[in-house]
Amino acid sequence: MLKPVNADTILSKYGKDKLGPVAYLPANAKTGTWRLHRPVPDNAKCSRCHICEKYCPCAVIVVAEEGCHIDYTYCKGCGICVEVCPKKIIQMIPENSQKEVL
Amino acid sequence: MAKRKAMDGNAAAAEGARLARVQVVAAYPITPQTPIVEKLASFIDEQKLAARYINVESEHSALCATIGASLAGTRAFTATASAGLALMHEITGVAAGCRLPIVMPIVNRALPSPWSLWCDHSDSMGERDQGWLQIYTENAQEALDFIIFSYRLAEDERVLLPVNVCLDGFFLSHTSEAVIVPSQEEVDNFLPPYEPKNLVLDPLDPMAVNVLTSPAIFTEIKHQHKVAMDNSLQVFKEVSQQFQENFGRQYGLFETYACNDAEIIIVSMGTMSGTVRHLVKKMRKEGQKVGALKLTMFRPFPGRELAEILGKAQGVAVIDRSAGLGSLGPLANEVRSSLYDTANSNQGPVVCNYVAGLGGRDVTEDTIALIIKETVQAVEGNLKKSYESRWIDLLEEAESI
Amino acid sequence: MNIMQNQTRGKHLFHGLTSCEGCAMELVARTVLDILGTNTVVLTPPSCSAILTGFSRETGWHVPSFMANLEAVASYASGLRTGLEVLGKDKVNVVGYAGDGGTVDIGLQALSGAIERGHRIIYICYDNEAYMNTGIQRSGATSLGAWTTTTPGGKPTQRKDVPQMLLAQGIPYLATASTAYIDDLAKKVEKAKNTDGPSYIHVHAPCATGWRFPAHKTIDIARMAVQTGLWVLYEAVDGRLKITKEIKNFKPVEDYVKMQKRFQKATPEMIMELQRFATEGYEKLAERVENV
Ligand SMILES: Cc1ncc(C[n+]2csc(CCOP(=O)(O)OP(=O)(O)O)c2C)c(N)n1
Ligand code: SF4
Ligand code: SF4
Ligand code: SF4
Ligand SMILES: [Mg+2]
């Protein structure tokens, strides 16, 4: 079966032995480095509604029992989650600022 | 058991595709290729061929759909001519670059302008550097045989490239001849069922095909392609051996006639080669040392092998059935360049280029006789060893037409 | 444990894709694959979606994919689908994922041909209203009044309505959708998946880079297009039209336009015309629904 995400493995078993233009490795740009601001949820107030998860273009949010988790390795900092959160509990915090929490 | 049947080149090519058990046909009609695609549609309709026919809305889509079917893992077929081939041009590079063993007859017809329905090689010559193998056939038997032959060649792991089988429009496509049609069993013994060996689109082994490629590896991928082109000369010979064992007919990269001690050799491709041979035979009887060389495989160009034969002659007449505007005819350019090493030793032959047979003009015995006469004169020094093409069948009042 | 291993959404595209931040095209692609699953092959043309298909040895898709030519996604898909059927692999979803340019302009002929032939292919057009990948040039889907690098004074003519053209041609399943209504989109993809024949979904997909707005507004702008009536969400099963998101209180087009710098050159007349287009367009569609 396929690995879920960014398996640092080869996607296609045979791709590397093929002739011609073929990609068989997973894309893996560390797009988190693009971020100027990071979205930080206040999980105490999170209703686990999953809306942020649904709209994150990069699919880097997982809402679980403990609340909203963001994978900062890849989060591009677009701020869409902040806008769509009905409770308005995600905040954009400048990268490298004192307020950085994670 | 093989059967003898009267059929024209188009029917023979369609029959070849049927016997090769192609699984998907995607094609768009264009004169003079149309009967091929009509025949295949009937074969499928009458269940004489277990394949799917895709009625595409253009040649561009025809080749794309053929590629799609090939990437799914089926033996795929299309055919075209002239403007249809030109429309496909964007896609021919994809078929070759993705290393897909597609076979596509080109029923040669002049490219506009002027509009013409009739034969010359300007259409297929426009594709000569796209990385397909190109085979030129002389008669209906060759047309049938080379469809089957070409799948075997294309699908060889050392090759994995698409093949054009070229048929002269009308002269071959619409002229009936006796053809030996092999039985399905005989063909099955020669050509096994298709098994994709390279790129496939299969959810069980996901890969991205035809991706944007960085300069870091682009050259290397092209080089793989070049190696396959080079390999195909050797593979052709092996397939040819097999073909001869299975069917009793033998095909070479080119065919020579009376070339051994020939002082003058005429190089041609396609249907005119029969006329050339006929004249050479006559002249031999009169004691003239002429020979004929019919080139079958134009891509890759078997330059080294050709030079061995042509290098011994004093004069080589190359007949190009396309204008080669702005240069020599494309065939003459190749021949001259393959003879460069011999020519440097100052013993190489004089190479004269004749453009003839454009837009359906017949290349007659008279035309060829004139070609030989002029080449003899060139050898004797009356005509210069010149880098120019001679339009040999031009009407005298050409400028005032 | 890496929390991302619990990821349920969008996982059939890898992370670390270099589409712009907040890219609706990427979100739509993830949503589509969530519904279709891994027994799918995707074809993309040169466009921003090509970023997903990959570069050299790396690809974004968890499923097989093919980089088609700009005008030919539907033709390649036709052949692929046919080939898969010959081999008995009927269950594989064949998906074309193309931009508006590759769909409504250069690729329209191939698309129309493939629909006529009735192949079971799913064609998704993400509409960012311009040729973005070549640097924001006008397409047949660019809005009246919108700036692009080839309509520097604002586009003088209205966009063409390709979903309606295809509907007129006859197609078993057709829908419009929006990046702002992900659940609605998901339902439509599900229907397309279960359609025995060609299906077409045209998804409005705002582009922060090309429309000149801050990326975090992407969803708001998509929603506003729907709420003004400029982009109507509907579907048609065997030609029977149904509006899937009815709008009671329309927002003024002005509100949509002023959220994006691309409309800065639009004249008041153009804005009025856009308003008329929104109001009348919605009404005309609604009438056709009642008449069925
Ligand atoms: C035949 C051809 N013409 C032009 C191009 C250049 N080209 C590449 S992408 C593109 C624009 C595609 O626009 P669209 O389909 O809207 O996708 P987007 O880039 O907006 O995602 C163009 C014109 C091409 N690749 N092929
Ligand atoms: S900022 Fe954008 S990329 Fe990052 S988690 Fe939020 S929606 Fe996703
Ligand atoms: S949208 Fe807001 S409330 Fe809902 S799960 Fe995400 S963070 Fe929690
Ligand atoms: S230009 Fe627009 S569509 Fe293209 S990647 Fe960027 S945001 Fe996405
Ligand atoms: Mg676009």
Describe the 3D structure:
The complex is a heterotrimer of chains A (102), B (401) and C (292). In chain A, 10% of the residues lie in helices and 22% in strands. Chain A is mainly β and 102 residues long. Chain A is elongated, with a radius of gyration of 17 Å. The two termini of chain A are 33 Å apart. In chain B, strands 10-12-11-14-15-16 form a 6-stranded mixed beta sheet, sandwiched between helices. Chain B has a 4-stranded mixed beta sheet with strand order 5-7-6-13. By secondary structure, chain C is of the alpha/beta class. Chain C has one domain (22-287): 3-Layer(aba) Sandwich (Rossmann fold). Chain C contains 11 helices and 9 strands. Chain C has helices at residues 24-36, 50-53, 73-86, 100-105, 108-117, 162-169, 182-193, 208-211, 218-227, 253-257, 268-291, and strands spanning 40-44, 58-59, 65-67, 93-99, 122-127, 173-178, 199-204, 234-237, 240-243. Chain C has an 8-stranded mixed beta sheet with strand order 3-1-4-5-7-6-8-9, sandwiched between helices. Strand 2 of chain A pairs parallel with strand 2 of chain C, so a sheet runs across the interface. Magnesium ion binds at residues 99-101, 128, 130-132, 139 of chain C. Residues 99-101, 128, 130-132, 139 of chain C line the site of magnesium ion.
Write the layout of secondary structure elements.
The complex is a heterotrimer of chains A (102), B (401) and C (292).
Chain A: E1 22-23, E2 25-26, E3 37-41, H1 51-55, E4 61-64, E5 67-70, H2 80-84, E6 90-94
Antiparallel strand pairs in A: 3-6, 4-5
Chain B: E1 3-7, H1 9-19, E2 24-26, H2 34-45, E3 52-54, H3 59-72, E4 76-77, H4 82-97, E5 103-108, H5 122-125, E6 133-136, H6 140-155, E7 163-168, E8 177-181, H7 184-190, E9 208-209, H8 215-247, E10 254-257, E11 264-268, H9 272-285, E12 290-295, E13 297-299, H10 303-310, E14 315-320, H11 330-338, H12 340-344, E15 350-355, H13 365-379, E16 389-391
Parallel strand pairs in B: 2-3, 2-4, 5-7, 6-7, 11-12, 11-14, 14-15, 15-16
Antiparallel strand pairs in B: 1-8, 6-13, 10-12
Helix pairs in contact in B: 1-2, 1-6, 3-4, 6-8, 7-8, 10-11
Chain C: H1 24-36, E1 40-44, H2 50-53, E2 58-59, E3 65-67, H3 73-86, E4 93-99, H4 100-105, H5 108-117, E5 122-127, H6 162-169, E6 173-178, H7 182-193, E7 199-204, H8 208-211, H9 218-227, E8 234-237, E9 240-243, H10 253-257, H11 268-291
Helix pairs in contact in C: 1-7, 3-5
The structure holds thiamine diphosphate (TPP), iron/sulfur cluster (3 copies) and magnesium ion (MG).
One iron/sulfur cluster (SF4) is lined by residues 41, 46-52, 63, 68, 85, 87, 89-90 of chain A.
